[in-house]
Amino acid sequence: VQLVESGGGLVQPGGSLRLSCVASGFTFSSFLMSWYRQAPGKERELVAAISGSGTNKNYADSVKGRFTISRDNAKNTVFLQMNSLKPEDTAVYYCNVRLGLGSKYDIWGQGSQVTVSS
Description:
- The chain is mainly β and 118 residues long.
- Helix content is 0%, strand content 50%.
- The chain has strands at residues 2-6, 9-11, 17-24, 33-38, 45-50, 57-59, 67-72, 77-82, 91-98, 106-108, 112-116.
- Strands 2, 4, 5, 6, 9, 10 and 11 form a seven-stranded mixed β-sheet that branches. A four-stranded antiparallel β-sheet has the order 1-3-8-7, with no helix packed on it.
- The model has no long low-confidence stretch (mean pLDDT 97).
């Protein structure tokens, strides 16, 4: 079971980035997928989540209207489109899937650094 992320980088305030996470080793379309982020000195927080079918999506209040989560079940990939980025969006972003009941079943990507700075 593996999650491999790509797409982070440095962007100016107001800019955009798109993160991707390719999954392997489980039935991708059966599981809710999430994006989390962790800024320096802060706890990891949930940014967005999407149901297995892609029908249901949830967002943190801080990113509503700016970020969009989506998935391509044919390619076992989940995306996070980030627009109108702000310096406070600077963090390491992690892709996540929980394969069973409880945090011991959490699988995490390697993390992608997103830095928003002029």
